[in-house]
Design goal:
With 105 residues, the chain is α+β, with helices and mostly antiparallel strands. It has one domain (28-102). It has one helix at 4-26; strands spanning 36-40, 45-48, 72-75, 80-84. A two-stranded antiparallel sheet has the order 1-4. A two-stranded antiparallel ribbon has the order 2-3. The chain binds FE2/S2 (inorganic) cluster (FES). FE2/S2 (inorganic) cluster (FES) binds at residues 34-35, 85-87, 89-90, 96-100.
Length: 105
């Protein structure tokens, strides 16, 4: 039989576990610690993977389901070479802004 203090510790542990699981599912994974170079075509739409789980980096393959994250649509106005963020922490998504240089290993 559990003592009153043990109930409280168990409840706190369960709550902490739930919080950890929620955090895990809502934080992006680092697909690559640097940008992906992509030649985009004028008039095309691209769906940048925000969760980091896609196997088609830097674009979405539907792997974000259940994470609470969704891809970011990018419409190319002109044909050009862009550097899509691979670390998923850029402050100007979907493109790399150098933030990957500040991430810990
Ligand atoms: S790859 Fe994410 S900021 Fe550079």
């Amino acid at each position: 039989m559990l003592e009153e203090g043990e109930h409280t510790r168990e409840a706190a542990a369960a709550q902490a576990k739930r919080a950890r699981e929620e955090r895990v599912t809502s934080e992006p994974l680092i697909a690559q610690k640097g940008p992906f170079e992509v030649d985009v075509e004028a008039g095309q739409d691209y769906f940048w993977c925000r969760c980091g789980r896609s196997q088609r980096q830097p674009f979405c393959d539907g792997s974000h389901k259940g994470t609470g994250l969704a891809p970011l649509k990018f419409h190319a106005e002109v044909s050009e070479t862009l550097y899509f963020c691979g670390c998923k922490h850029s402050h100007s998504p979907p493109c790399c802004d150098g933030t990957h240089n500040q991430l810990n290993d």
